[in-house]
Automatic annotation (TrEMBL):
<dbReference type="InterPro" id="IPR001267">
    <property type="entry name" value="Thymidine_kinase"/>
</dbReference>
<feature type="binding site">
    <location>
        <begin position="20"/>
        <end position="27"/>
    </location>
    <ligand>
        <name>ATP</name>
    </ligand>
</feature>
<keyword id="KW-0237">DNA synthesis</keyword>
<dbReference type="GO" id="GO:0005829">
    <property type="term" value="C:cytosol"/>
</dbReference>
<keyword id="KW-0479">Metal-binding</keyword>
<feature type="binding site">
    <location>
        <position position="177"/>
    </location>
    <ligand>
        <name>substrate</name>
    </ligand>
</feature>
<dbReference type="Pfam" id="PF00265">
    <property type="entry name" value="TK"/>
</dbReference>
<protein>
    <recommendedName>
        <fullName>Thymidine kinase</fullName>
        <ecNumber>2.7.1.21</ecNumber>
    </recommendedName>
</protein>
<keyword id="KW-0418">Kinase</keyword>
<dbReference type="GO" id="GO:0046104">
    <property type="term" value="P:thymidine metabolic process"/>
</dbReference>
<feature type="binding site">
    <location>
        <position position="149"/>
    </location>
    <ligand>
        <name>Zn(2+)</name>
    </ligand>
</feature>
<dbReference type="GO" id="GO:0008270">
    <property type="term" value="F:zinc ion binding"/>
</dbReference>
<feature type="binding site">
    <location>
        <position position="152"/>
    </location>
    <ligand>
        <name>Zn(2+)</name>
    </ligand>
</feature>
<feature type="binding site">
    <location>
        <begin position="169"/>
        <end position="172"/>
    </location>
    <ligand>
        <name>substrate</name>
    </ligand>
</feature>
<dbReference type="GO" id="GO:0005524">
    <property type="term" value="F:ATP binding"/>
</dbReference>
<feature type="binding site">
    <location>
        <position position="181"/>
    </location>
    <ligand>
        <name>Zn(2+)</name>
    </ligand>
</feature>
<comment type="subunit">
    <text>Homotetramer.</text>
</comment>
Length: 192
């Protein structure tokens, strides 16, 4: 479990990235860390991309219906304006943000903000998703989570798409995706 660094005195910023497959618990872990920051009386702001309308237009919602209020934004630069005088910034579904998201998070961290980012490291084809590789490169702390493979019960690293659609972006839940381990992901031809 991630334990917050114990920093006293001068405010210091950093970037935490929470990654993994769908259903691995990224949103739950993001919510857990943000709630703890609020318990510590820190000023917290939470953002998600406007593209993510799956469960709710405004809230961040985990697959087990845990939720927190967030601000949807269509451009990562808006974080620099909206996150002024904030101690902690939470960002969900980071894979959907534009090419500046990693630089924006870096700038926030240099300003002294604790930035907690959650996102899919791989798309359904097992390729790096969006700007996640850049966020992972700039992160001070990385947590990689795993779901349970619905086929065999081992730990799952992949998000298997059950529907024949080649677009990288396709919003969905259990109707479209299932978490699978490497072996079960390969079994159904997801790897050539
Ligand atoms: N196959 C699975 N493996 C693990 N968790 C699952 C699975 N199917 C459903 N869940 C539920 O999903 C929750 C995690 O949801 P969430 O935090 O939204 O994940 P993520 O953001 O990584 O997609 C788990 O606590 C569990 O209740
Ligand atoms: C693998 C994969 C996923 N997506 C979409 C599906 C969901 O709407 C989100 C992931 O949400 P979660 O919080 O991680 O469960 O991303 C996609 O568009 N393309 C993909 O390849
Ligand atoms: Zn499996």
């Amino acid at each position: 479990m991630f334990i917050e660094p114990n920093i006293t005195g001068e405010r210091r910023g950093w970037i935490e990235v929470i990654c993994g497959s769908m259903f691995s618990g990224k949103t739950e872990e993001l919510i857990r860390r943000l709630k703890r920051a609020r318990i510590a009386n820190l000023k917290v702001e939470i953002f998600k991309p406007t593209a993510d309308t799956r469960y709710d237009d405004v809230k961040i919602v985990s697959h087990n219906t845990n939720s927190v209020h967030s601000t949807p934004i269509d451009n990562s630069q808006k974080l620099l304006l909206l996150a002024q005088n904030v101690d902690v910034v939470g960002i969900d579904e980071a894979q959907f943000f534009d090419s500046e998201i990693a630089n924006v998070c870096d700038e926030l961290a240099f300003r002294g903000v604790r930035v907690i980012v959650a996102g899919l490291d791989m798309d359904f084809q097992g390729n790096p998703f969006g700007q996640m590789p850049f966020l992972l490169a700039k992160a001070d702390y990385i947590t990689k989570l795993h779901a349970i493979c619905v086929q065999c019960g081992n730990i799952a690293n992949y998000s298997y798409r059950k529907i024949p659609n080649e677009d990288q972006v396709m919003l969905g839940e259990k109707d479209v995706y299932e978490p699978r381990c490497r072996h079960c992901y390969k079994m159904d031809g997801a790897v050539q």
